Amino acid sequence: GREGLVDTAVKTAETGYMQRRLVKYLEDLCCQYDMTIRTSTNDIVQFTYGGDSLDPIFLEGKDRPVDYDRIYQHVRALYRYDDELPLNGTDTNTFVAQEIVKDDYSIMDNEYKQQIIDFIQSAGKKVDAYRKKYRVDERLENIEEQDDENFKSEDNRKRLSTTTTVAKKQRKLSNVFHEVERCTRSQLLEFLQLCKSKYGRARLEPGTAVGALCAQSI
User: What is the edge-to-edge ordering of all strands in the sheet holding 44-46?
Assistant: First the structure.
């Protein structure tokens, strides 16, 4: 028993002193305004911190500043935009690809933009799969055709104006179909803005003493 205690004490002393030496050796490493990591003598240690200039403290996903799926579901639940029609998978991909290249998103690097595009493409495939599975487009088209037929005659127009009309039931059914994996342009804009905001928050700030942080985390 005594021998084990001695070994533990020695190991603790060695590792504790090792951390002190690391802190002393790395304490002058700092992120500069050109985003390079330099010593107090201005020697470059890294051109970009960690290869992506992102602070690990603010990463939500694995090596990513945003948990895309959580943000996507959050936006769809919180920002309804009920007055807008949902997009199909192809329109979703096209809209995001055109929007993300604008100057408003220039803060994000190309790798991060590609991650967003890849996620939206996978979400778009899911939208198309659901719409195909439940024949959403076909059923919506049938509802529109029935509405056109019902409004052709005056008798039908009077009948459809009552509270118990088939038209109201058809519109409710139409609304149900529109809710299947629903995502609108405004929701996608909210998603992109949140991704940009979280990316900006996760970027390493100039002046951060990254050396001391790294030494303490070992």
Answer: 30-31, 37-38, 44-46
